[in-house]
Amino acid sequence: MTTECLQDANPRAMIELERVERRFAGNVHVLDRISLSVQSGEFVALTGPSGCGKTTLLRLVAGLDRPTAGRIVVGEARVAYCFQDARLLPWRTLQRNVELPLELDGVESGERASRARAALERVGLGDATDRLPNACSGGMVMRASVARALVVSPDLLLLDEPFGALDEVTREELDEMLLRLWETDRMTVLLVTHSIREAVFLSQRVVVLGGSPGRVIEDCGIDLRKDDPDLRTGAAFNEQIRRLQLALQDGASTSGGRSDRS
Amino acid sequence: MNGFLSRVLPPALVFLAFLLLWSGLIRFLDIKEYLLPSPLQVLEAMRADAGLLLAATLRTMFATVLGFLVASVVGVLLGSLLGVSRWLERGLYPPTLLLQMVPLIAIAPLFVVWFGFGMRSTVGATVVVAIFPVIANTLGGIRSTPAEHRELFRLLGAGRWATWWKLELPSATPAIVTGLRVAAGLSVIGAITAEFVSGYTGDQAPLGSLIMGSIKTFQTDLMFAAILISSGVGFLLFGIVNLVGWLLLRRWHGSDRS
Amino acid sequence: MLLLGCSADPVPEAGGSDPSPEAVTLQLNWLPEPQFGGIYQAELDGVFAGEGLDVTIQPGAAGVSAPQLADSGRVEFAVVGGSQILQLNDRGGDLVALFAVYQHDPHGIMVRADSGFQNLSELWADPEATIGCEAELAFVREIDRAFGVEDGARLVAYNLPAFLAGTQQATQCFVTSEPVALELDGIATRVFMTNESGFDPYNTVLVTRRAYLDAAPETCAAMVRAFTRGWEGYLQAPERTNAEMSRLNPGMSPKAMALSASRQIPLIRDETTSRLGLGCMTAERWRDLAERLERLELINQVPKVEDMYRWKGR
Lengths: 262, 258, 314
Fold this sequence. Notes:
The complex is a heterotrimer.
Chain A: E1 13-24, E2 28-39, E3 43-47, H1 54-62, E4 69-74, E5 79-82, H2 94-104, H3 109-122, H4 138-150, E6 156-160, H5 168-185, E7 188-192, H6 196-202, E8 205-210, E9 215-221, H7 235-253
Parallel strand pairs in A: 3-7, 3-8, 5-6, 6-7
Antiparallel strand pairs in A: 1-2, 1-4, 8-9
Chain B: H1 2-29, H2 39-48, H3 50-84, H4 86-101, H5 104-115, H6 119-143, H7 147-155, H8 160-198, H9 207-216, H10 220-252
Helix pairs in contact in B: 2-10, 3-4, 3-6, 3-8, 3-10, 5-6, 5-8, 6-8, 8-9, 8-10, 9-10
Chain C: E1 22-27, H1 37-44, H2 47-50, E2 53-58, H3 66-72, E3 77-80, H4 82-90, E4 95-102, E5 107-112, H5 120-125, E6 130-132, H6 138-147, E7 154-156, H7 160-165, E8 170-174, H8 178-184, E9 189-193, E10 203-209, H9 210-215, H10 217-236, H11 239-248, H12 254-268, H13 271-276, H14 283-295
Parallel strand pairs in C: 1-2, 1-3, 6-7, 6-8
Antiparallel strand pairs in C: 3-10, 4-10, 5-8, 5-9
């Protein structure tokens, strides 16, 4: 299996970033002229060392923040966002938490309830719909957060290190869940993670940010058979991880820039 | 059973000792009846004037509860209004504070001229006294809504009303409950104080008027009885608010353990 | 010869001036007003000093309980209402009346001059009427007992601004006080005097506690003499004392003082006082009062009234 690196962006892009910059007060320069294009239906992982601006980039796409320079265009899409901390409202049951986006949209209560229950079912929480968040484990709470994102049937799903705070085993379980969900729904996904392993497992394309301020230092397709149950132990998988790790290290030591490797 | 005893026995013993000390002091120092009645005399006054005290208590309780409810609802609304913008808060907070500082005894007679006698001005005075902690705590609770949750709501496209009703109020509930606890105690004080100057006297008298009247006729035993009952009303209201708070917070927040 | 319980000074002789005057405190139950005119007159005319007394006159205020101050010994003398003496004594107190300035009760129920009420009975029966009064006071209870009906007038807390605003149709008053103030403000009123209904306790009564009377009888006698001369002087020519009282109590002008002083004369001086002297008291009247108070359940039992007062050596 070979990795392929992308050439020009496709006109049917879901997300388009043109020379996006983000500076904060005190002359903190976080993102430096990022240009990126994500197609409809792609699963893209965004990775890089801490502080390189991955979360900032995601927030800019989500509209939670505005760029200091450059342009962001997001296509006609229902957008859903999963925070790093699950952000469930502590006084609502899981079901009522998942219902929240629908509630705010004015969806009528019977339909809300059934859609919320269905979403929780899909993430494996069908039996826990009436629990309060403080009675749930970290994994359960993150699943509920994903369910809340899914309940609106999003076209674009943005995830900010959703499983970062969980243990290895739970994390892998949730990764599998996410992959299956995507394979069914085929929405566009942009996942921020600092785990290259997770990025390679889940996505079709990995974008590596690096340096300070952050730049794109690698942008590679992942050409692996995701339905292989032994995927994670396979040689191709681990090779891909190694290559990306190298790219990351290089990016950290040089001042970055797009690199073409074959 | 053992747990129950260990909880009830200490305060019960202290109370008993207190009663003995009280009676003893009166006997030993030969304190006159009109200065300090004995516990038995107070009980006797309760018995002898039971009908009068009961009717008065019900009147005062009604005014107190009504005033408390109005103060709670209006207080939460005003506190929320102040939470809408810093500008509003800066403008409206000082006058609210000022209203709180004016001694009730001074303005209560004016209430009577504005609102009329009896229940109306008593409730009005109670509201004025009890509303401030509700406003302050509601405002504080809303201001401390976690920024992450606000961001979530912004992300989901929630409007102002939805944010207030579905996020700010539930988030502020622990603080509001604290404010209500304080308001409960103040409500009783406010009602009784207002009744000193605005209550019906005669056979329509509420507790406050009874207390004032018994002072004038040197019926200190009746006064003590009425005061004890007033404290009881305060305890009762406080206990109910506590219970409601516990129910709310237990279910919603799991944060209130008391 | 020192008497137990009294001050270190020797007891002054009757009528003579003493090199070291007896220091006593006299607690009034309200601010300086014509009601206490004779007392301030005695001070201004040097009558107290002449009797060997160094009197500190302490004006009263709301919340100050003159009967209790006298009974506890915190002050030697006080001026209180007649009913209060019997009520306090019924509850463990031990006051003795020495001089009754007001022979007749000065309380009444005040209505506006143009109101339709002809008498107390009509007023108390009107369900639309609110009457501002302290319903636990003896005279109010007596009126209520005589005229109160089911679904009649409502009794509310005393509140003069409310009466002026019109939310009260009637209010209790002290005949030398509220009606005078209103008259000077141009508001005409009528007063139904409670003493017309037969309830007529003494008022503005000089009292002391029994222990003090037993310990210092001469001081008490001197005080009574001073009162007599002070009041005689005030009734004759009150102007100078009124000016002084107005200085002490700026809330009442000399004009108001003069009007008030004129209104109180029939309460102080009557046929009985011309026979027995100013401030006199009789057992019959005390007994009548005690019986009425017992009927009103303001006292538990009728006491031996002869013990409640002292007059002319009794």
